[in-house]
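[09:14] KT: can someone run the structure on this one? pasting the chain below
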Amino acid sequence: MAFVSSPRDEPPVPPWSKRRPRDSGRPRLSRDAIVDAALGVLDAAGYDGLNMRAVADALGTGPASLYAHVSGKEELFGLMVDRVAGEMVVPDPDPERWQEQVKDFVRAIYRNFLAHPGLARANLGTIPTGPGAVAAMDRFLGLLIAGGLPERVIAYAADILPLYATAYAFEQSVFAERMTEEEGAEYVRQIHDYFAALPADRFPHITSMAGALTRDDPQPEARFEFGLEMLVTGLAAQR
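[09:31] RB: done, structure tokens below
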């Protein structure tokens, strides 16, 4: 049975939350509408282009009206991350397939962040505590527990695996902001030529592997999948 978090299952509000009461005299807005608009702004303008004024403009209102629902940009990013996390479907644990289930979960995190460039950057250095994120993490822990891993290993894995997906998606978004696909290919060719031109007597390994280090893999996600396989295989060895 698949699982998607539901608003009715929301855990208690963290004591450090900066939620403010709604002001009935302001335009009729909702957190969901604000998050919808914020995701649209983020997708169009990127991380640096997201601010309260841009979101308010997308909603046809003033920035002040948003503060009746969110305390500022930081909380708004948290709500956006929670929205994306809450949309993840996590299967019931299958001890016979736990490794593939774990990989699928990490892939989903990666693809969700790729779909909203800039959101991975906002997620780095934070611990999501919204209802969607908490529900997804609880289900993810179930997959790791089904693998028969020690508790400490599970705790580390629950941190490192999402971090891997987040950091990888962030790197991809940085590349996309800096250069086009054609410019990226030219950049890699230049790196190859630079490595190959290094003095072989001083850098024997780099020069001999210049081609391998800069070879374009026909499978776009090959590097991501290689790292994911390494991580999950390492986890399995901890049983």
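[09:33] KT: thanks! The chain has a mean pLDDT of 90.
[09:34] RB: yep, looked fine to me
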